[in-house]
Hints:
The N and C termini lie far apart (about 35 Å). The chain contains two helices and five strands. By secondary structure, it is of the alpha+beta class. The longest helix has 11 residues, at about 30-40. A five-stranded mixed beta sheet has the order 2-1-5-3-4. It has a single domain (about 1-75), classed as Roll (Ubiquitin-like (UB roll)). About 20% of the residues lie in helices and about 25% in strands.
Amino acid sequence: MLKIVFFASLKEQLGVDALSLKQPDKVNDVAGLVTFLITENPNWQGLLDAPNIRIALNHEVCDSDAQLTGDEEVAFFPPVTGG
């Protein structure tokens, strides 16, 4: 199962903090997962695919081409600012 978690303002905008789902057919990487999630939830477009959204795969920041095997945690979070 994939565990998908959303943090901070992204969680608030999507209205969900976590999802669990079986890896969809033909979804092999994070980019495919994003496309799948947007297809299932069209109002998420512009949020999950925004260029400044950060993604972590099993607690390590990754790019959208990171491969999935079906038993991972994928986290989405807005960029963090601080000072």
